[in-house]
Amino acid sequence: MKTVADIQVIRRLHELEGWSERRIARELHLGRRTVHKYLSREESTEEPVYTRQKAPVAVKMGVYQAKVDEWLTADAKAPEKQQHTAHRIWTRLQEEEDATDLSESTVRHFVARRRRALALSAPKVFLHLEFPPGDVAQVDWGEAYLKIGDQQTKVWMFCMRLGCSTASFVALYPHGRMEAFLDQALRMSGRPYDHIFCGLQVTSGGAG
After folding, report:
1. Cβ of 4: how many Cβ atoms within 10 Å?
2. Angle between helices 65-75 and 104-117 (to 10 degrees)
3. How much is the pLDDT for 69?
């Protein structure tokens, strides 16, 4: 924006010196449209009026906010691979809302702001666990399939992983009854001192 003194210089050169708009623009290193704009005013003290050429993102996206919020909120309960990216939201707005005037960058910035507003962009927190040697082991008991010859054979696995070294021990059994699980659990008794059992499903009888 030019000062009042600058505008007066432009007007004086044009009205008193007879300079053309082209010459003023060239000599003062101004754009032709700028020179014409100031010469077209009735008063040189008139402040130029700024007119926004493009609607701000918030105004442009306001009509779609409810829909975007709906998608983002639903994503919070969906698996990570099924959640919307900003690109996917831009595509859906074009396809479902006929929002062909929206640029992808506009949607991307808007989605980032809505995620923050909805508290959906909090960083993931991981807890680092450390255990002294021989202190803790994690135990799993589950099914697996082995190929023995040409046959797929179902077996049950006793899996133990040490908390300190993460070294693993695996024992296989032909059935999933309690005695099979206890066979290894008792063998490991006292080594290490504590065991963390994860989702155990042990049958009480039958072939399992």
Report:
1. 12
2. 60
3. 93
Q: What is the mean pLDDT of residues 68-85?
A: 89
The CA–CA distances, whole Å, from 173 to 133, 153, 188, 199 equal 28, 11, 16, 18
Q: How far apart are CA 172 and CA 156, in angstroms?
A: 6
DSSP 3-state helix, strand, coil percentages of the chain (rounded to 5)? 40, 20, 40
Alpha helical stretches, state H, 52-195: 57-61, 65-75, 86-97, 104-117, 178-187
Q: Is 109 helix (H, G, I), strand (E, B) or coil?
A: helix
CA distances from 66 to 70, 73, 76 (A): 6, 10, 16
Q: Spell out the residues 6+ positions from residue 195 whose beta carbon is closer than 8 angstroms to its own.
A: 136, 137, 138, 139, 160, 185, 188
DSSP annotation of 207 reads: -
Please identify which residue in the block is written with the tokens 């960083």: 123
pTM above 0.85?
no
For residue 111, the SS3 value is: helix
- What is the dihedral sign for C-alpha 132, 136, 142, 145? positive
pLDDT digits (tens, 9 = 90+) for 30-49: 888 888 888 887 554 455 55
Task: Output DSSP code: residue 20.
Answer: -
CB atoms within 10 A of CB 181: 21
Please report which confidence band the pLDDT of residue 158 belongs to, taking 50, 70 and 90 as the band edges: confident
